[in-house]
Write a structure and sequence with these properties.
By secondary structure, the protein is mainly beta. The chain contains 2 helices and 20 strands.
Amino acid sequence: MKQLFNILAAGLFALASPAAAFSDTDPLVEIEVLDGGPTGRGTYMGALRLTLQPGWKTYWRSPGDAGIAPSFDWRGSRNVGSLSIIWPTPEVTMTSGYQTIGYHDRLVLPIEITPAAANQPVTLTGEMQLGLCKDVCVPSEVSFQHQLNLQANRNPAIVAAMANRPYSAKEAGVKSAKCTLSPTQYGMQVEARISMPTAGGTEVAIIESGTPMAYGGATATERRGNMLVATTEFLPVTKGGFALDRSKLRITVLGTRHAVDIRGCSAG
């Protein structure tokens, strides 16, 4: 159950004092904003580059069984109509017998920014809250402020991170993705049956609910020939319950050859 995972994560974070996350002489993580220049869509590319101390890791947007998902506060940004984060393919590791999903040593997180007003200066200002783990885990918060160079050339680090993103369903040859929803004692079980070629090795699937009102536990993944079957249970964040929309479910399959990002599924 996710409550257990949260308790475990809280216990891991409690092993280190908050002050350990910050050091004037040797910070565990440093952040900078990269410029990526304009796109052909009238948007601009940027990125957050996180540099961690050797051996340390941080988490993907869905951190796994025992981890803390990163969060962002963009207040203070100027001339930002909307932005979209492009997550590079993460790694699957085991921490104290629990599966975690994230990145080691360095993370370049591309961001596509749509300005509120075209051809006007764009400033990214905000904070990122994240978990950092090695032998112990600590919470951390980093701040950034940067006026984009709207005439910048393509940035090789951003290009490489974009190239490392999961394939789309079409790119990966996904023929169909069907989801069965079944009420459980406390929430809702989702079984996804995905007709797709193997992504390589022992595949790991993650199902995201698409709603802040529900959270999921571990996803069981099984390969049956050309069919990948992934099952998880979602539980309510509050006593008010929740509803799942199949079109908002997001399924990520991580394999040794590549990853696949599947947006939505049909009834089945």
